[in-house]
What we know:
The protein has 233 residues and is an alpha/beta fold. It is built from 6 helices and 10 strands. The radius of gyration is 19 Å and the shape is globular. The mean pLDDT is 94.
Amino acid sequence: MISSNNILVVIPARAGSKGIPGKNIKLLGDKPLxxxxxxxxxxxVPMEDICVSTDGIDIKQVAEQFxxxxxxxRPSSLASDTAGTYEVLLHALNYFExxxxxxxxxxxxxxxxPFRKLTHVKEAxxxxxxxxxxxxxxxxxxxxxxxxxxxxxxxFLEKSKxxxxxxxxxxxxxxxxxxxxxxxxxxxxxxxxIGKFTKIKKYVMDELSSMDLDEMLDWRIxxxxxxxxxxxx
Length: 233
């Protein structure tokens, strides 16, 4: 069983959002967007093991309103829209280790996945083993390289992946990261970027729970789904 004492939860929240201005503190339902991830984090680990990594004073203040101590403001090198999640996670992990706190697992909860439930995170944690690099949440994708994804070669389109299948039902399922849950081996993170992980296990989520808020259209759809009672927070 995984001990909560071994887990650092990181909630990244950059201030300069272009797709949805001010999204991390924008109200969705009756709470700022980031608060939905904070509440899940608080149900997993003690508050001192939650890190809201931000470059925004207003985001820091909102996190503190929900009981989270924000120990640092991101350095400018991690505040641009080109700053990678890998560097943000390493920065947070290194900060806490410099304070004498060692972690075996880093759980990344992105605020842009508000319909992710506590149950999802607990089930994903149950899959984790110390021998692997990561458990990541996914959804089954409708696009399939054996069926309807193509690459252009020599001026003509070819299916991205060859396969001899008599029907669509025989085609292997394909998954895509939905951005909701990353349960990462801290030692693996120190050795290489997430994109180079090879020992990855999936945790499958449904389409609605997987919704990622990236553009204003996503936000409007999420508001509609909430209003109609199709999803809950």
